[in-house]
Amino acid sequence: MSKEVSPFGFGQVASGQSFVNRERELDKLALNFRSNLHTVLLSPRRWGKTSLVMRAAQQFEREHSRHRVCHIDLYNVYSEDEFYRLLSKALLKATSTKMEGWIKNATSFLGKLKPVIKVGDSMQEFELGFDVELKEDDYQEILDLPERIAKDQGLKIVIALDEFQNCTRFNNALLFQQRLRAHWQHHKHVSYCLYGSHRSMLMELFEKQSMPFFKFGEVIYLQKIAPEHWERYVPARFKKTGKTISVELVRKLLDTANNHPYYVQYMSHLLWTKVPGGSEATEEQLTDAMTELFQHQRPLYLHLMDGLSPKQVNFLRALMKGEEELSSQKVLRKYELGSSANVVKIKEALERKEIIDTAMGELMLVDPLFGTWLKTDFFKP
Ligand SMILES: Nc1ncnc2c1ncn2[C@@H]1O[C@H](COP(=O)(O)OP(=O)(O)OP(=O)(O)O)[C@@H](O)[C@H]1O
Ligand SMILES: [Mg+2]
């Protein structure tokens, strides 16, 4: 049996040698982190936000012994209380590596909240709880915790908050954002990096004048990685494992993957599995890789379509046909979309399902290969 290991990774954070370029973005983040400036990083799903922030964080911590980064992921956080607990825990963890340190910091900075720390068997992990019900005052205390710890211990702290858009599902989401902003704007030793996908929702949070996070920090719209970087990376990864691929074929691969970072890695991996050791990738193998990818994705896409109403399906059909005036009488009639008010509702529903998103006023499918599949398979003429 072959003991080969794929040189490509998808679905996990890109790190080490699997991390491609992003030099400019890394420089920007490093500067903001060092200067205690805040950053808002936005992109559609799977373009590489988490990988980028993780890499920048790693470099920042290596840069100076007093630099610390605290990672919080709002992926499965549903309440404000849970957020404060996570923030406290992540801070204790980032500012001390030992059990004694966690307990000491918890007692000296959070003593009032009666913190309870349960250390795991390995002594590397712990759970944090509070023996009191958190109240307004306690929220304030926890929000200022990063600044207090940073000052007390002579640290520069970065708080990286992934999937930030999820805070909109908290009860009183607006009040929550107001609290955060009111405290964070006074912090001098802490830099906040808020990031996430679902552009339309995040743009609402950061670009609407009436919202608390308006002009909070530098807003970066992450772009895709430029083709020339993949054109160097993919052949180098093939070469490392004794296989080759021409730049022309990489370009074709980039085209079919719509230059989408996740799909470039995924397609490269599938293609790589089809190339025997010591040989060069062929166009037929690329076609096979593409077919395999759609075989993997098909059940998922069918499931997505199953969850849509007939009008939502018709809307996607119109979009895939390249109709631009989706609310015009002609399109409404041709695709049986109901009224133009109905189209607004359809759009909102599809956005909530993360099927479409609007960026710079342009409607797009979040998953570009879903679009390819709709055109070539589902809505096949
Ligand atoms: N700089 C990079 N170099 C190489 N591959 C990358 C890079 N950035 C992203 N990728 C590819 O894209 C995938 C998704 O990256 P990542 O999870 O960082 O994106 P994300 O924007 O945080 O996604 P999500 O919106 O789902 O949270 C990675 O698993 C990897 O395959
Ligand atoms: Mg992510």
Structure write-up:
The chain is an alpha/beta fold and 381 residues long. It has three domains: 22-221, 3-Layer(aba) Sandwich (Rossmann fold), CATH 3.40.50.300; 227-302; 309-378, Arc Repressor Mutant, subunit A (Orthogonal Bundle). Helix content is 51%, strand content 12%. The strands form three sheets. It has a five-stranded parallel sheet with strand order 2-5-6-1-7, with helices on both faces. A two-stranded antiparallel sheet has the order 3-4. It has a two-stranded antiparallel ribbon with strand order 8-9. Bound molecules: adenosine-5'-triphosphate and magnesium ion. Adenosine-5'-triphosphate is lined by residues 9-14, 18-20, 22, 43, 45-51, 197, 225, 261-262, 265.
The geometry reads as: globular
Q: How far apart lie the N and C ends?
A: 44 Å
* CATH class category of the largest domain: Alpha Beta
Integer-rounded radius of gyration? 24 Å
Proper CATH architecture of the largest domain: 3-Layer(aba) Sandwich
Mean pLDDT: 91
Name the beta content range: 5-15%
Number of helices: 16
Q: What is the CATH third-level topology name of the largest domain?
A: Rossmann fold
* Biggest β-sheet description: 5 strands, parallel
List the helices and strands in order. HEHEHHEEHHEHEHEHHHHHHHEEH
- Class from secondary-structure proportions: alpha/beta
Instruction: Return residue spans where pLDDT drops below 50 for at least 5 consecutive residues.
Output: none
Strand order of the largest sheet: 2-5-6-1-7
So, the CATH homologous superfamily of the largest domain? P-loop containing nucleotide triphosphate hydrolases
